[in-house]
Amino acid sequence: MPDSSAPLAILELELINAIGSATTVAEVQAVRVAALGKTGTISGLLKGMGAMSPDARREQGPMINGLRDRVSAALASKKAELDAAELDARLLSERIDLTLPARPRRKGGVHPTMQVMDEMIALFAEMGFAVAEGPDIEDDFHNFTALNFPPKHPAREMHDTFFLKPDPETGERKVLRTHTSPVQVRTMLSQTPPIRIIAPGRTFRKDSDATHTPMFHQIEGLVIGKDIHMGHLKTTLETFVARFFELDGVDARFRPHHFPFTEPSAEMDIRCDRSGGKLVLNEGDDWLEILGCGMVHPNVLRSCGIDPDEWQGFAFGMGVDRMAMLKYGVPDLRPMFEADIRWLAHYGFSAFAAPNPASGLS
Ligand code: DAH
Fold first, then answer.
1. What average pLDDT does this structure show over 49-57?
2. What is the H or E stretch that residue 176 is in?
3. Tens digits of residue pLDDT in 68-103
4. What is the atom index within ligand 1 of the atom nearest the CA of 220?
5. Is residue 284 part of a domain?
6. CATH number of the domain that residue 251 is part of
7. Same domain? 23 vs 145
8. pTM for the whole thing?
9. Quick one: which atom of ligand 1 is closest to the CA of 317?
10. pLDDT computed for residue 158 by the predictor
């Protein structure tokens, strides 16, 4: 009888060598499949035992089973070794040196317009105003008609409106809102008085020069209540402006003006001095225009289903970017929207310096 253990010993040697030289878990897996998989060499030997004579089986069985056990053990121990090495390599590559110094300079920052919006929201919130919002794409009714702009009136042209393509079915032309005042209308239509809201947001006009950009930001205010009068308007706005510029009070004047949605209407100016090449508030003989305001026109109240004999109110609107420029000495409006990281590094604010009335505003 030939020595039937010889081919087994050779097979074992080959397998153990292949396992020994494997350098990845995938290579170990390939040896496992070649030996112990469905059509593997050892699997073939195990299957062949069924057809052996009892004597041959008694002799070869323990050898084949022994071979299987030793190869399985070698596979398992090689896999464990490679797993451990892989983990070590990963831990090494993911190591963080906590003793490294922090990055020296932040790259991004909060844009001054957003910082100022947050400041304004914080101040008005303290005075009991809630924040309201509306869409950037408006319809003619909310942007103009309900705000008492007469049809075909040049006041509509005054706003240099961006019109969208007419709707093919209705012919309706939506607009990019030219001011935040439509949020007044939306609020009055959806809430019942008393109302006290501010509406910060983006606005759009076909206009571009050193002091105008096609997109800019406004904040709108609206107060509707019983027996509201100009005195409330004046005190609210003077308090706001003084706190915003961190002054004890403001020397303000309310200059008559015209807006279709308010009657009477005014612009609020603050005394200022520009003679030294920089802006000083509350001093000098100059006036700085800050915002538009007035008593809500009875037609606007009626358009929104509010009885003007029962309810009155005041409204105001101002440019947020402009207020940011005034407060933080930004000289030119256009770079505010050029997304230049160097500009932001200079004029931006830390995200950790979120304004709130307790910790101060700037
Ligand atoms: N909507 C005006 C504009 O964009 C600003 C404004 C003026 C808003 C007076 C008001 C207001 O609410 O009362 O020019």
1. 90
2. strand 175-176
3. 999 999 999 999 999 999 999 999 999 888 888 777
4. 12
5. yes
6. 3.30.930.10
7. no
8. 0.71
9. 8
10. 66
Name the residue of 124, 217, 259, 290 to mutate for ligand 1: max ligand atoms within 8 A of Cβ.
259
* Domain membership of residue 188 as a residue range: 112-347
The answer to whether 153 touches 193, Cβ cutoff 8 Å, is no
Q: How far apart are the CA of 261 and the centre of ligand 1, in A?
A: 8
Query: In this structure, which amino acid lies at residue 9?
Result: A
Residue range 236-285, pLDDT digits in tens: 999 999 999 999 999 999 999 999 999 999 999 999 999 988 889 999 99
d(CA 205, CA 175): 10
Q: Is residue 98 part of a domain?
A: no
Residues 202 and 80 reside in one and the same domain: no
Tens of pLDDT along 313-334?
999 999 999 999 999 989 889 9
In a domain, 314, yes or no: yes
In a domain, 100, yes or no: no
Domain edge (last residue) among 93, 128, 143: 93
CA of 219 to the centre of ligand 1 (A): 9
Q: Examine the fold and report which residue of 61, 93, 125 is the final residue of a domain before the chain moves on.
A: 93
Q: Work out which ligand 1 atom sits closest to the CA atom of 222.
A: 12
Ligand 1 surroundings by CB, under 6 angstroms: 179, 181, 220, 259, 262, 292-294, 315-317
**Mutate-to-test residue for ligand 1 from 158, 161, 179, highest number of ligand atoms within 8 A of CB:** 179
**Helix spans in the chain (H):** 5-21, 25-36, 41-48, 54-93, 112-126, 140-143, 154-158, 182-190, 230-244, 298-303, 320-328, 341-347
Atom 8 of ligand 1, residue of closest alpha carbon: 317
Main-chain phi, psi angles of 328, to 5 degrees:
-110, 15
Nearest atom (ligand 1) to Cα of 179: 4
Q: Is 270 helix (H, G, I), strand (E, B) or coil?
A: strand
